[in-house]
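From the pipeline queue, job 12 of 40. The input is one protein chain; the requested action is below.

Action: predict structure.
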Amino acid sequence: MTHATPVRRDARPGPLLDLALSLTVGGLPVMPLSADKRPFGNCPDCQHNVCGGRPNMKTPGTCVCPRPCHGWAAATLDPAVLSSAPWLAAWRRAGAVAYHPGGAGVTVVDLDDADAVDWARATLPPTRTVPTTRGEHWIYSGTVRSVNGVREGVDIKSLMSYARWLGPGAGTMAELPAAVRSLAAKKPAAVRPAPRAVAVRAPGGGGVCRHRSPVYLERGIVMAEQRITDAASGVHATVYGTFLAVLSTHGRCGCLTERHVARLFTAAQAKGESPRHCADAWANALTALGM
């Protein structure tokens, strides 16, 4: 398997852009991802999807903004778009290439740990397999709605979602089995475990508190919970980005408590994130901010 090499901010966009262009030849709609695996949100009018996803979030490549700012819907097969000046800025800061599985007519069963891989081997027909950092991607021909948390450690990425390109994988791609279609048809709440408490630390503080009223912090936590709850795809990245935003705003002065952290974790687990993923995202956000 060949992993994409991250590009420095001052580097030419060649390696990742060349990879992206080569993938479009095979029919994969592609887009750049930041180093923390999040889609870019360069357009001020569209950050956090405040524009509502204009003009048509159901069709990849239809974003009218000049930059790749609508997640999976920005994925495109058009080399001219990928190589245009606004996109080159994103490629220079990118850490990976992503693709829209549904736009390529495939479904990715994202197996996030060894237990999930064992379940797939015992339950699903063999297909093309791509190793990931913690598990495997099983890729099938055919599309279905994308659902996170259909089982512990199992996400389905197809329509209206994106997956990171980690290489072509091995094996012959099989048709999407009924077992995967059945999982995608279920309501996520029916198969997700109940949220569990996770022991994590809130930052110790020591800075000057800029919040003159508890209302400011409460509004920030409510907005963070809503952002996670509203995530239609890329839940892992949304949770990490939300944790990072909360910590960067409220984490250095000591006003953030374990109670606030628990509320964020509860929102994330309600979207299918495991307690371990929540703890990892929190720790990574603390590390990124030097806290």
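Job complete. The first strand starts at residue 30 and ends at 34.
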